[in-house]
Please model this.
Amino acid sequence: MDFMKWLNSLDELLYEVMSWLLFFPITLWRATFRPIVIMTEIDAEAALPEDQQYSSVLSPPLFLALSLLLSHTVATALGQTDLIIANHHGLADLVNDNASALVLRVVVFAAFPLFLAARLIRRSGVKLDRATLQQPFYEQCYPAAVFALGLSLSASLGADHHQSLATIGRWLAVVTLLNYWIVEARWFAKVLGIGYLQAAGNVLIGMLEGAVFLFCVGYLFTR
Model:
């Protein structure tokens, strides 16, 4: 009986993992080219029973994690060594394999949707608590995943010894930052009912908060 339960669990796990191969590119396409639409659909998904949620796309946190896994795979394919894994001083000694390095990156990049969601809640006049933060955080994970993937890929390409790839990496970083800023400004303007200029200012502050967190963690784990 236990063996049959194990087989059933394996069957479900295999299907779930293999379905990612199909639904990851679908979710990536929608999050890249229709970000406002997919963010708007989060409220509708939350109203569904748990087993019916995110049936046509990946859940936001999972999409963020897989985006960073993809960027890490590209860096490995380019023969690049993870600086945090290679460093054995201080806190970096806690990150000694690819799995722990991926978890750290997910936490770091999840700070961007966290800070932006918190800022959105505060600007809307709603009390900030765990209940009110969850949905905005999930909404923010989709553009944040595209941002994390683009920024990570640009860093990998920028560090390559081929000049053409390095140039592509630098331009990709600029496009990724501008795209994230514009998408978030559109979202803030839509949700808060404010002008684009004011929305862009709020987004910029949230992005700077995330950037400070990223640099602080990077400093602590590379020293």
